Structures are given as C-alpha cells and as structure tokens.
C-alpha cells in the first residue's frame, strides 16, 4: 500500500503509526484521523453558545415584553439552525463525502466566494473573535467580583456598600488564559469544552431555579406584554434598549464563526455535514429551551427591574452560597469558552507567520519538554508562547478600559450576526449548490439575509447608544461593582 507525502512527513515527525496501518491512522487529506463525534461537536457548540449571553436574556426580555421577547428568541434559534445547516454543507467543496475539505470558516469562503469577500470575511470574523475575548474577560471579572460582594452582603447586610474593583480579577482571568492558550489546537481542548459545557448548564440551571423561587416568593408574575414601561425609561431609551436587546439575543446564539473549525474535528463516515446537522439541532434545541426558561423566569421575577446580568446584578442575595457556586461556574465556563473562540484566531496568525517565515526556528521549531507519568512530551513553540501571551494581555487591558458588559455583548452580537451567521453561509450555499438567480429559493434566501441585516443595524445602533450613555459617567481603570 502506498504512503502519501503527508503520511511520510507524519512518520518523520515521530507519529507512532506503521505504514501498513496508514489508511486507518489518516484521513483522506493525509492528516491524523479525526475522532470527533456528534456528542463532542455538540459539547463544543454548547460551550460556545450557552455562554455569558444567557445572563443578559432576562434584561433583553424585559425590554421587549412577554410577546416579542420569546418570539424573537425562537426566531433567532430557527435562523441560527437553518444557516448553520447551510454552512455545514460548505465544509467540503463539491462532493459532500469525498470533496476537498475546508478547514476553517475562511477556507470555506475562499473556496466558494473568493476575492474581496474573503478579506472582508476574515476582518469581520477575527475582529468578532477578538471582541468575544474582551466580552468574556469582562463577564468573568464581574462574576468574580459578584462572589466577593455576595459574601460581603451576607456578612454586613444587603444595604451595605460592598463596591469592589474588577481590575485584579480581570488580571487573574488573563493569567489563567495565558496558561490555557498554550494548548496547541481544537482537537486537544475537547476536555476543556466538556468541563465548560457542564459549567454552563450549572449556572444556567441555578439562575433558572433562583428565578422560579423568586416568582414563588413574589406570588405573582411580573412584567407586561410590551416590556419596560415608558416612565421607567424615556420613549427614546425604550427604542434604543429594545434594539440593544436584539443584539444581546443575537450574541447569545453566535457560534457560526467557529462551526467549520468544530466540524473539522468530526470523524467520517458518515459525512461530516450529517453529523453536524444532528449536533447543531441538539445544541440549538437545548440552548433555546434554556434561554426561554432563563429569560422568561428572570423577567417574571424582576419585571421592569430585571438586571443586565441575572447572577451578578444582585436581584438574588440568598442563598448566598448558591449564588457563589453559580458565579464560580460562570468563571470556569468562560475560561474554556475563551479558548474555544480564540483557537481559530490563534491558528490563523500562526499559519500566516509560518508561511511568511518558513525558515525561522522561532516560529516553526517546537521544543520538546518531557512530562512526568509517561505522557507524550509537550511541544513548546516560542512564537506561540509569545504571540498568544501578548494577545491575552491586550484583551485584558481593553477589558479594563471598557468594562460595559451589556453594551459590549449587544454590539458584538450585532456586528457578528448578519455577516457571519447569515450572509456568508447563504452566499456560499447559493454558490456551492449553483442556485440560479431569481428562482424562488434564491429570492427566499436573499429576503432572509436582508431582514437579518436590518436587525443587525438596529441592534448595533442600540448598543452604541448604550456605550455612549455609559461613557458619560465612566473613569478608565476605576470600574467597581
């Protein structure tokens, strides 16, 4: 049996694979055989989707009301699932079983659309991933300060002044991310994804339970059909906040920019697109049920006063230990989610560097560090160590400068939703399936894309208005909660 060039290189790199077993050890592209399943793909997606966005859904529901709030969440879930199915079909070019693989979202855009669209897509995708890293740093620090404040309230009373600086906690989170960022790639963080997915269910369930308990204590369901009342806020603020709520919900569903990278971890047969359809359906259904429950019970508990962050806005003070567990789970989840989101950005920069400077030992050479307990040596790459560390430091500093959780979440959701979740998957699908212009299917897809563009513009406008409002009373590096 012949051995491909890639397989030969793999043997030379020290992979313990016998040539006669080459076909069993390698996939059709010569890379080491992928081992991902529907369940590991689902855990990656759930880790990415049920993130800090769930915590702002009670606030978002409060802006939209009992009618529009749940309807908008369901519509976003349907759009996300549909466009994710379109996107998963673009993992292979041509034949869905044996066609050329596209390893990243950018590769899929290059294969199907090419030209200027690739550059635009890359800019939007990587800016969005950069923004998500900032958003997660802010969210993690808020949860860490919430644990400290919860204990302070428990000791001194709910009316006590328990203001705590978020900066030390952002730095602590950054240090943890520097350590975890040295995990080389997606295949090696499956365990981190599963831990993060468990944590996301933990704090979502606690938030939901506390919401149900609060409704029971109140003895009534708060809120109104149309959302927060004019009088509590001005008419102008009502409009802007409703738009921002769309961005918050969009952010809660955003994971399309890493779907292809997740799909590239899945084994075949069956065709990767079939596995991803099932994984996406499971993930979107599970997350939507959680989102509806958390958003609706949070709104039912607090009505117009629903906090921007359900577990750190201190609508709940007791039981303080349960609030602490929920916030600890948020922090652990965000440590993993940060890495899941940043892996494509890490890989992109490292690929560019290795292609630009192929002879540089600093960039391409791995230093083998022996590990105790019979584990394979760890491959330390100096460029990876330096660049990923610098990246984490930059996101941490920006988080300390702009610590506006709700507004940042809404803006990220708005900027990423239309181009990455809708426009590019729709256009790639049209190109791959060669759908003729002005046919019913082509028109339907374009209407979907145009409607989502309008929603994104409205959400971005609302979030920018929120940031401008926050900046009026803001002092850099002096944020306390």
From TrEMBL:
Alphabetic keyword roster: Amino-acid transport, Cell membrane, Membrane, Symport, Transmembrane, Transmembrane helix, Transport
Q: Which GO terms describe its molecular function?
A: symporter activity
Which positions make up the signal peptide?
Answer: none
Gene Ontology biological process terms in this record: amino acid transport
Q: Which InterPro entries match?
A: AA_transpt_TM
Membrane-spanning segments = 41-60, 67-87, 123-145, 189-213, 279-300, 320-341, 385-405, 411-430, 442-468
Query: Transport: present as a keyword of the record?
Result: yes
Q: Please state what the protein is called.
A: Amino acid transporter transmembrane domain-containing protein
Please name the source species: Chenopodium quinoa
